[in-house]
Amino acid sequence: MAQPATAGTLPETVMDDTRPPAGDDLKYWLALAHIPGLGDIRVGRILEDAGEPRSIFDEPDRYAQRLGLGEAALSWLKRPRWEAIETSLRWVEQANHHIVTRRDPRYPRLLEQIANPPALLYVHGDPELLSSAQLAVVGTRSPSHSGRLTAREFCAHLASLGITITSGMAAGIDGASHEGALDAGGYTIAVAATGLDRVYPAHHRNLAHRITRRGAVISEFPPGTPVAKYNFPRRNRIISGLSMGTLVVEAAGTSGSLITAREAAEQGREVFAIPGSIHNPLSRGCHRLIREGAKLVETASDIIEELGPLLPLPPAQRGRQTVNSQDSPTWDQDYQRLLAAMEYDPLHLDILIHRSGLTADAVSSMLLLLELEGHVSSVPGGRYCLTRPSGQSASNRHSGENRQPPGQKVCT
Predict the structure, then answer these.
(1) In a 3-state reduction of DSSP, which class is residue 12?
(2) Of 76, 92, 123, which residue constitutes the final position of a domain?
(3) Using CA atoms in the order 327, 406, 111, 287, what is the torsion angle rounded to 10 degrees?
(4) Contacts of 378 (CB under 8 A, 6+ apart)
(5) Tell me, what CATH number does 189's domain have?
(6) Of 318, 298, 206, 310, whose CA–CA distance to 249 is shortest?
């Protein structure tokens, strides 16, 4: 396993007050990433031309002229503010902290292929995971109950096949995606839009700790970077850039997750979207993506079939056991009548009573049992819907070649 990049603390004084001691390559990378107004595309041009960041500091006037840099950037090149990178140097000294530069063999190849890859990544967790086969899963911060369940089930199933789930650790679909992967014993990567000395949103602090133990939390932003709305679109290009494809679970028409999907398309990656009810505002973004050419996804198999040989499917995980038919419950006539009256779109209790011809007490009691068994989901307003085929129980829905993979339509 490659060793993490490390660096000591800068001395109080350095030779001629313009640079750290020779050989401290990490410090030059950090200084390069701090140059005001430089941008990732110009960094790429520097690396193509000079090979290493130190070159631009050795010939500041030459590179400033070639790249059309402004006065602020030129001033930084001539007299770098080495104190500005002290926080990063202290951060990387801590256990399980790494800084992966574009010259590091652990830098992910897929991310390097995008138009504007970051010069470096701060990684809290396993940097080797950056090059694993990944699927980005994103969506609204305010999902429906069924949307959250769909994200968890999809990610649990895909993670169990060896696919790393990558998302942004935001509230809603992002968090559910990470949790699904972790609960299945899989791996997950969270891409932050802040420095890694803080967790956003704060209520995901425990989730972030879980991810660092079974994956990685990463960022292109140095420690100390606060929450800023303009950093989230930058973060999104990394989420899609790390991944073979991007799945959108629920998204309103103006959702930020559509930015990630657009980035994926521009990067030449696959875009997947799960449809929903035409009455659900959180389905509009997914329906828009499907109209624009995203692959409509109903089950996890749709994703696996599309990505095909790019996915790591170990033989032991391909050969899952089939489930004996007696695992499926046998419903009596009343339950069958109620289930026949239900749909994947939510229906009010009164409609179910009318359709089934059963009493209100009987329907209420049966719905409670069906919900406990995981066959029915309730939504606000006294409405209920099917969550999966009634013969498939919650305890075995991920096992068996003959069973439908997770991702059936659920309440919206």
Answers:
(1) coil
(2) 123
(3) 180
(4) 145, 367, 371, 384
(5) 3.40.50.450
(6) 298
pLDDT tens for each residue of 89-136 = 999 999 999 999 999 999 999 999 999 999 999 999 999 999 999 999
Residue ending a domain, choose from 282, 301, 318:
318
Interatomic CA distance for residues 254 and 58, integer angstroms: 46
Whether residues 314 and 330 fall in one domain = no
The amino acid that residue 359 corresponds to is T
The tokens describing 210, both together, are: 């879980």
Copy the structure tokens of residue 389: 């085929």
pLDDT-derived band of residue 330, with 50, 70 and 90 as boundaries?
low
In this structure, the answer to whether residues 309 and 208 fall within a common structural domain is: yes
Q: Give yes or no: residues 95 and 226 share one domain.
A: no
Q: Round to whole Å and give the CA distance between 320 and 115.
A: 40
How far is 126 from 189, CA to CA, in rounded Å? 9
Burial of 373 (0-12, 13-18, 19+ CB in 10 A): middle
Which amino acid does the sequence have at 214? Answer: R
**Beta carbons of 131 and 108 less than 8 angstroms apart:** yes
Reported pTM: 0.75
